[in-house]
From TrEMBL:
Region (Disordered): 248-304
Taxonomic superkingdom: Bacteria
One Pfam assignment: Amdase
High-level lineage: Bacteria, Bacillati, Actinomycetota, Actinomycetes, Kitasatosporales
Name of the featured protein: Decarboxylase
Length: 304
């Protein structure tokens, strides 16, 4: 069959993505991307360090970024995004801006980071007081709160898992439990940190339950990268992406009479779940033996 009349594939816009070496959610990033955009991913070199502030510093060194960006530029992306939350907040607001400048200089294309995209997204939805969920240890979670404070964002409550490895295998059930514990006081939105934490399917459920916008690291990264090239990210029933969702229950903030998550158990402003999630090897955290979660468990959420 002669298909020459088709004229070849349609032109594609390109988004370059620099991810840490242990990033395992390539497919999740693609779910926010329309059909006429391609993602071009590269990873930072492997280092034998567990998830920590030290690792965040190692995977965000300017020399590492320079090499990754130059590799991506071989396929001529229109924008380059650094898809790592901790790596882009560990040096504060000034450090995040320096990363963007270093990448832009290396590739001569617009560049952004997950943490910079987060601040941009919070401004987009008018959120200045947020609850935070992370899979990190306390020290890394503290660093995120410091970064947000520098940017003028107040953390009203937070929950974290205390993990140092295999974050991509955390089930949706744990993400939902942390979100419920973190939303205390009058938060305008919830942020789920870490690009290695799966969130795409859980965002609509949490927005409906908590009655506030829910942002995640991968979501804001793709939203900002696509917006930089004049393209809208796709994601049904997500307030950041869907104006209808933003006007509906998801837009209700903690200033409402009943408050967000009315009827849910109240928690302290910080909740640590260090023993609630299990590394895939089955080893406990801090000497505790957590219950096993089967890899196929999705927290009761149907696949999209």
């Amino acid at each position: 069959m002669d298909v020459s009349f088709l004229g070849g594939p349609q032109p594609q816009l390109g988004v370059g993505v620099v991810a840490p070496f242990d990033f395992a959610l390539d497919r999740e990033l693609w779910r926010w991307v329309p059909d006429d955009v391609s993602l071009h991913l590269t990873r930072t070199p492997f280092v034998p360090v567990e998830v920590s502030l030290d690792l965040a510093r190692l995977v965000s060194e300017h020399e590492t970024l320079h090499a990754a960006v130059q590799a991506l530029c071989a396929v001529s992306p229109q924008v380059i995004s650094y898809a790592c939350t901790s790596g882009s907040f560990v040096a504060g607001v000034a450090g995040e801006r320096a990363m963007c400048a270093a990448m832009a200089q290396a590739g001569e294309v617009p560049s952004l980071t997950t943490s910079g995209a987060l601040i941009e997204a919070l401004r987009e939805i008018g959120a200045r007081r947020i609850a935070v969920v992370t899979p990190y240890t306390k020290s890394v979670t503290d660093s995120l709160e410091d970064y947000l404070g520098e940017a003028g964002i107040t953390v009203t409550g937070r929950a974290y898992l205390g993990l140092t490895r295999h974050i991509w295998k955390v089930p949706y059930r744990d993400v939902v439990d942390m979100a419920r514990a973190a939303v205390v006081g009058s938060a305008d939105a919830l942020f789920i940190s870490c690009t290695n934490l799966p969130t795409y399917d859980v965002i609509p459920q949490l927005e409906a339950e908590l009655r506030m916008p829910v942002l995640s690291a991968n979501q804001v990264t793709m939203w900002a990268a696509l917006r930089a090239i004049g393209v809208q990210a796709v994601g049904p029933y997500q307030a950041l992406l869907d104006p209808v969702a933003r006007r509906g229950p998801a837009a209700m903030s903690g200033s409402d009479a009943e408050g967000p998550g009315e009827g849910l158990p109240r928690a302290t402003p910080e909740a640590a779940f260090a023993a609630s999630s299990v590394p895939p090897d089955g080893e406990g955290l801090d000497g505790l033996e957590p219950p096993p979660y089967p890899p196929e468990d999705t927290g009761g959420l149907p696949p999209v």
